[in-house]
Amino acid sequence: MADLSVVIPIYNEEGNIPLLHERWTRTLEEMKVGYEFIFINDGSRDRSVELLRELAQKDSHVKYIDFSRNFGHQIAVSAGLDHSRGEAVVIMDADLQDPPELLAEMYRKYKEGFEVVYARRRSRHGESWFKKITARAFYRLLSSLSSVDIPLDTGDFRIIDHKVVEALRKMPEKSKFLRGQISWIGFRQTFLEYDRQERHAGETNYPFRKMLALALDGITGFSDVPLRFVTYFGLIATGFAFLGALYVLYSRFVLRDFVEGWASLMITVLFIGGVQMIAIGIIGEYLSRIHANVRNRPLYIIRDSNCSS
Ligand code: UDP
Ligand code: MG
User: Fold this and answer.
1) How far is the CA of 95 from the centre of ligand 1 (A)?
2) What ligand 1 atom has the least distance to the C-alpha of 93?
3) Which residue ranges have their beta carbon within 6 Å of ligand 1?
């Protein structure tokens, strides 16, 4: 059994794979640990999978899993965890934004007895202000909504013990938000701070659409506050509506006031219509996730792999 399994999701990373492999191999050799790489090709449209196959032929530390299509970053990491055999697992990105140099220090902390050592971003370079602001806001919103203590400004870059990996394997949910699930699992957790580098080559594979999907998975997976909010808001709105109705009846039958009041009527109808749409939308977000779990389709489909398990 290897000491460390290094799980790396790959989506259109042909410009990063050779340097990534070289730098991480050097780091791991210097650390004098037994290791394996598990690359998950998440339906790349470039030459990534060819590069991975070549690497696997040259270097027996290299395992790869080739998905039948793009299933998404969190699912790619989950597949890597499913196939990992190491005493501990490192999760990281392929674009060298997570510095190899930090690993030795993280590993030392792990050896001190922490089952989870994650890396928290002190600063982020080469990312748009929009991404930084939305990410910052998201982590704060999530922590205020959730009773699980999910660390702020922390991605998936971390070392986790195989006990944590086994616990994750027992969590069959289809909407994966691994950093939250790992917090939920518990054990002794600690962190190191680092400055996040620019992407080495290529462009981000997390456009706003994917960030929003991940954020919604995080919130729906770790908080029922939005649902409760809908209930409270509905109660309050109904209370106001009842008072409004009394007033309407009074003005109709006592004051004999007919046509006037059209503006307030329209405003009320439109407002309540909007509130109802939002409410249904929030319920729908939860419902679609229940539906995904009830359908119980496999999380991912593998076309080809050189992992033995
Ligand atoms: N990734 C993936 N599937 C996707 C999108 C991204 O496997 O659908 C991988 C990507 O190759 C990288 C990691 O997930 O290793 C993080 O993606 P990226 O660097 O684009 O995200 P960012 O750092 O910009 O948030
Ligand atoms: Mg990146």
Assistant:
1) 8
2) 15
3) 9-11, 13, 42, 70, 72-73, 76, 93-95, 97, 204-206
CATH of 4-223, one of 3.90.550.10, 3.30.70.120, 3.30.450.20, 3.90.79.10: 3.90.550.10
- Closest by Cα among 216, 188, 197 to 74: 216
Q: Which percentage of the chain shows pLDDT scores above 70?
A: 98
Hey, where are the domains in the chain? 4-223, 225-294
SS3 at position 89:
strand
| Closest ligand by atom to 76 CA | 1
Task: Render pLDDT for 61-76 as a digit per residue (tens, 0 to 9).
Answer: 999 999 999 999 999 9
- Burial-class residue 54 by CB neighbours within 10 Å (0-12, 13-18, 19+): middle
Is there a contact between 179 and 149 (Cβ–Cβ < 8 Å)? Answer: no
To test ligand 1's pocket by mutation, which of 77, 98, 154, 206 has the most ligand atoms within 8 angstroms of CB?
206
User: What digits encode the pLDDT tens for the residues 171-181?
Assistant: 988 889 999 99
